[in-house]
């Protein structure tokens, strides 16, 4: 729903333990519209 509501946005799926690495693009899954 978030990505549909904000087409310019991205959603990151990762664990809380790896959140910092996810924000750096090192881990996790990024969903774009």
TrEMBL record:
Instruction: List the molecular function annotations (GO) for this entry.
Output: carbamate kinase activity
Q: What is its EC number?
A: 2.7.2.2
Keyword Transferase carried by entry: yes
**Which top-level enzyme class is recorded in the Swiss-Prot or TrEMBL entry?**
transferase
Listed A to Z, the keywords are: Kinase, Transferase
Q: What is this protein called?
A: Carbamate kinase
Organism (species): Slackia equolifaciens
């Amino acid at each position: 729903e978030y990505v549909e509501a904000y087409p310019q946005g991205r959603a990151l799926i990762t664990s809380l333990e790896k959140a910092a690495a996810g924000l750096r693009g090192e881990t996790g899954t990024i969903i774009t519209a």
